[in-house]
Amino acid sequence: MKKLIAFLAVFVLFVSVNSLYAEAIVIKKGSRANPTLRIASASVSESLKSEVARMLKVANWFDVTNSGGDFLLDLSGNEYGLNYRLISGGQIKASGRVNGNGDVNMCAKVLVDDILKKVFKIPVLCRSKIVFSVGKSMKQRNIAMSDIDGKNFEQITRFSGLAVEPAFAPSGRSIVYSSYGKNNISIFETLIYPRKTRKISSFAGLNTGAAVSPDGRYLTMILSKDKQVDLYIRDMRSRQLIRLTRDKAVESSPCFSPDGRFICFLSDKSGRPKLYMVNLQGSQVKLLPSVGREAFTPDWSQDNKIAYITRIDGEYRIAILDINSGRNELVPNLTGRWESPSWAPDNRHLVCSKSDSPMSSTLYVIDSWTGKYRKLFSSKNYFSTPNWSKVAID
Question: What is the pTM of this model?
């Protein structure tokens, strides 16, 4: 029971008051500017033009303008077949034809994704999804999913208790998460379409921290089956359970590296939760550099950066560790109580939860370059532990 209390304490340490190391903290400068873009669409309906402009703003890689512009987006057609040319300096930088199958919103999302892929080499953005835990109280939450602008909200689970920490499988076809039962916390997987749920892990005690490796072979788990809270992985092919840590410390919040060879996780083995990295054999455990005395809820981007939460001057800020350089930076212009960052597939934006009041928390999409953000939902519910898919989910 003491181990269980200690483990859960890792997730609520955001309310503790702790001093910081006397170290230099680099504030990321929000100086990067988006190129400007003007839409020319004499033969396109106003509703389609408006939706394209809106999705360009949601994606936040171009600033849409009504005059001038670094780029001109020339459109013709409709939501069944939309032709485009992206022109800059008199030259065509990208062109193509997209089909929204009669859906204006889908047509705009497919168009913007096609442009981002050809101009910025972003595999997908507008057609990705965000999954999260949501409910009207701290004791009752379910897993839900939405588009990256908060639209098309869809409830995935219908538990009477607490379901948290959802994570997409790499294929985007299913979601893994933890659900609190009467006697233990179990890990489940739910297939999105068609809806089907199975229990993956239900050892005595804790079964949390589920994340799937990029190749889909391994599942991370935090288990307390022998009264120690440690990090494990399960080989989903052979069903073999591999223990990666074995100590009296409390581990939590695992996430895979983009190549699937390493796992970043939290451990309080130093007395406070910090970032650690381990290989899949458990033979190499490394303390990672971070700002502040404590770190929380890491997430690893496809371009090898780890976003995490740290306490700075009484607030919970978003920090980013560049694994290649070992350099830590704070996302600029952000104050408040931020929690659980998750990277978008463009390696620029993050979705985070934020406590706006003691009675509610909601989700925001944050530009890690500038610190600018937009709110996904305005309802007075508890939104937490978001995760951003890395593939399109239509």
Answer: 0.92
SS3 letters across the chain: CHHHHHHHHHHCHHHCCCCCCCCCCCECCCCCCCCEEEEEEEECCHHHHHHHHHHHHHHCCCEECCCCCCEEEEEEEECCEEEEEEEECCEEEEEEEECCCCCHHHHHHHHHHHHHHHHHCCCCCCCCEEEEEEECCCCCEEEEEEECCCCCCEECCCCCCEEEEEEECCCCCEEEEEEECCCCEEEEEEECCCCEEEEEECCCCCEEEEEECCCCCEEEEEECCCCCCEEEEEECCCCCEEECCCCCCCEEEEEECCCCCEEEEEECCCCCCEEEEEECCCCCEEECCCCCCCCEEEEECCCCEEEEEEEECCEEEEEEEECCCCEEEECCCCCCEEEEEEECCCCCEEEEEEEEECCEEEEEEEECCCCCEEECCCCCCEEEEEEECCCCCC
Residue 270 lies in a domain: yes
Convert the pLDDT of each residue in 188-205 to its tens digit: 999 999 999 999 999 999
| Domain around 111 | 36-120
What CATH number is given to the structural domain containing 188?
Answer: 2.120.10.30
Look at the chain and report how many structural domains it folds into.
Answer: 2
